[in-house]
Amino acid sequence: MTCEEARGYFVDVWRGDMDETAERAFQTHLHSCETCRREVESLRSVWEGLGAVPRPEPDAGLRTDFYSSLREWQRRDSERKRPLWWVRHPAVQGIAAAVVLAAGIGIGRLTLGHDEGKLADLQREVNDMRQMVALSLLQQQSASDRLKGVSWTYRVEQSDIEVQDALLHTLKTDPNENVRLAAVDALRKFSRSPETRAGLVQALETQRSPIVQVAIIDELVDLGDKSSIRTMNGLLQEPELNPSVRKRVQWAVGQLQ
Amino acid sequence: MRRVCQGDLGGLAALFERYHRPLYQYFVHLSGNRDLSQDLVQDVFFRILKYRDTFQPDASFTAWMYQIARNTHTDSLRKRRFEVIPGGADAKEIEMPSHDEAPEDRIGRKQEVKLLRKALDRLPPEKREVLILSRYQNLKYEEIAEILDCEVNTVKVRVYRAVQALSQIYFQMANEKAG
What is the pTM of this model? Predict the structure, then answer.
C-alpha cells in the first residue's frame, strides 16, 4: 500500500468503517511509514475533537410552527382533492342524481304555477341529503372516509344541530388524530353555538394529542372564549403536559385575559 | 415517506420527528444562525411535501432530503445576498456539555473545543459541509456521494482534505493564542 492509498483509508479508520483485509494492509503500511502514522494520529485527535463540539438544539417553537403549518397544508390538500373524489364517490353520484331529479320536479312544479314554498322545500331536501352523507361518512371504519365526512359538514347549514353534535362526538372519540384535527377546523362553522364552545373546552380537557390540543387552543383564542381560561389553567398544573402545548396555553391565557 | 407520497400528509409528522433535529444542526453549523436555521428546517419540510412526486421509492430518503436541504440553504443565501459569518453571536450561545472531569481539565477541554469550533467556522463552506455531513449527520459515504453528486472515493478524499485543512487552522490558532 502506498502513502496515497493509505490516506484514502484515514476516514474509514476514524469512523471505524474498515473491512479486515483493508485494515491488515493499512496496519502493515503504518508499521513501515512513520509519516502516515503521525498524520493519521494527529488528524484523529481533530476528528474526535469534532465529536465534542456541542450540538445546538432547536427551541419548542419549531415544533409548534411545523404542526401549525402541517394543519394548514392538510386543509388545503383536502380542499384541493375534494372535487376529484366528489365525482367518484358512489354516495355523491346517487345524491347528484337525486338532486337533479328533485330539481327537475321542482322546476316543473314551479313552471306549473305552484308557490315559492316548494323551492324552499327543495333546498331543505338538498340540505338533508348533504347531512345524511356527512353523518354516514363520519361513521365509516376508514379514517379517510371519516375525513371526507368532516369535509361534507362544510356543506350543511350552520344551524344543523345533528351535524354539530356528530362533529363534537368525532372530536372527543375518533381514534384518528387527523380526523379529530379536521373536526376542530370544521367546528369553526358552528362557533356561534354555546354547545360548540362548551364541547371544545370539554375536548381540551380530555385530549392527549399535542397537535389537537394546540388546534383547539388556537380556535378558542380566535373565538375569544374566556370561559376556557379555567380549563387552560388546569392544564398548566399538569406536570406531564407537552412543553409546546404548555407554551401555547400560556400564550392563549395571555390573549384571553 | 411512502405515506406522504400516497397523499397521507400526516406521515410528514413522523418524518419531522425523526429528522428535524439533525437538519437543524446541519443548518446551524452551515449558517451559524439559529433563527434562520429554524426557518430553513420548516422550508425543507414544505419542499418535501411540494416535491414528493419526484421522490423515487427505491432511493435513499435521507440523501434526497439533504439534497433539498442544500438547495434550501443555497436559495436562502441567494435571497439574503450575503453570507452570514458562522461563529457569530448565535454560535456563542451554544452551551458546552458537562464532563466528569477535574475542573482544570474541563476548562482546558472547553477551550480546546471552543477553538475547534472557531476553526470549523473558518473552513471554506464546501469543506465545512462535507465534514458536517460525515461527522455530525452520520450519513453513509454512498449517501454523501449522492448528496454532493460525486463518487464515493471522492467523498473520502474530500473528508480527509477537510480534516487536514481544519487541523492546520486549529493548530495555527492554538499557536497564535499561546504566542
Answer: 0.54
